[in-house]
Amino acid sequence: MRALIQRVRRGGVRTAGVHNSIGRGLVVLLGVGQGDSEADADTLAEKTANLRVFSNKEGKFDHSLLDVAGSALVISQFTLYGDSSKGRRPDFTAAAKPAEAERLYEYFLRSLEAKGVPVKAGVFAADMEVEIINDGPVTIWLDSRR
User: Fold this and answer.
1) Which of 9, 53, 71, 132 could hold 118 in an S-S bridge, CB 3.0 to 4.6 Å?
2) Domain 2-143 - what CATH class?
């Protein structure tokens, strides 16, 4: 499972009548790969909730999402498994099949919430408009297999 995490001042998602937004926190673009499991989702949820990417008074990364009472906006993003090593069109065969990806995406949302993080989400497999107002910018790549 992969997550591209951006520290934000605010973030939002719009699709088919749904609009969710957060203030200070993290936007998590989440991709589910073939062979991923609930353990992968739990690993990334734990890391996301406790990742120290918010600055203390001295400007050092010392606080987590939980420490600053921030929120997470989680967007499904199968394209994180795109492989463009051959040709010009990315190959997405390493991404999980939609039914399994949706199940693990929903599981990740619940796991992150269970850790005390207020969570908003996009709509799985929908075309979405995502607004990200970076803070920093700070962007972190996580992979549950590394």
Assistant:
1) 71
2) alpha beta
